[in-house]
From TrEMBL:
It comes from Tessaracoccus lacteus. Residues 1-20 are annotated as: Disordered. This is Phosphate transport system permease protein. Part of the binding-protein-dependent transport system for phosphate; probably responsible for the translocation of the substrate across the membrane. It is found in: Cell membrane. It is a multi-pass membrane protein. Signal peptide: none annotated. Belongs to the binding-protein-dependent transport system permease family. CysTW subfamily.
Amino acid sequence: MTTDTREPASPAASFGDLQRDPRRFGDKLFKGISTGSGTGILVILAAVAAFLVALAMPALLANAEELPYGPFWSWVLPYALGTVWVAFLAMLFAVPTAIGVALFITHYAPRRLAQGLGYIIDLLAAVPSVVFGLWGINVLAPLVQPIYAWLNANLGSTPVLRIFFGGQASGTGRTILTAALVLAVMVLPIITAVTREVFLQTPRLHEEASLALGATRWEMIRQAVLPFGMPGIVSACMLGLGRALGETMAVAMVLSPGPGFNLELLTSNNPNSIAANIALKFPESYGLGVNQLIASGLILFIITLLVNMGARAIVARRAEFSGAN
């Protein structure tokens, strides 16, 4: 019979073994990569902001007579309003459709149909914006032009709706409403994909409790799914709004821009967006014209930043109510 004469390992030795554990090295490596990535995002954002401010200052400080496009604020204001207006119209079409599609995939569609529809939605997000622009010019604009003519004839003389449907209807269909429809199709897969995943995270017990109390499926969705997923819905909408605010090629290709800003949806005199205006005028600009265009890009950067900050505030306020983190 033998006895074990080895002394038990000391706590210091055990700690040293843990320090030499390869898994601990993996934890440290992952922490370093995560910290570096987060810091890198902040550095990139600060670098972009510094670049915009540095190149925009000559235009912001110059006299109005020296600027090739005229006084800066009176020149950029219609483009800023046009950017917000076309993005608002796009979200007006995209958000209800995206939420409806996400609810259909998660709570109504059979499993096979839901999987196939989910793949199609994800594939739609990979289509380049140039393709959407070509589709808007060659397919959508001629298709909706007779509808625009009918809306103009029947609603253009109504006192309240005249603001939106009045004027001379475009003969090509290349209006701000068409650009908004193209943008809505572009942001639809982004909002749908995020809201679909949010709805799938709804606690199953919440849904079953609502159904057990006698609620219909739609009542269960209103009582359990939508309140829980509201922060995620807001986040998805902000992602889509960021895409709509910064979209360039599709708007530049589809829209027939005109001077100034107006709310008319069916005419050829359309307000342009900041991004599309930069894309159209940058190749032929020089001197202070380049600085003036970059300064308008700074305005777009600030608009996007304010929108995202507002979204984060809304999500933070509703997170405690919904139980989401």
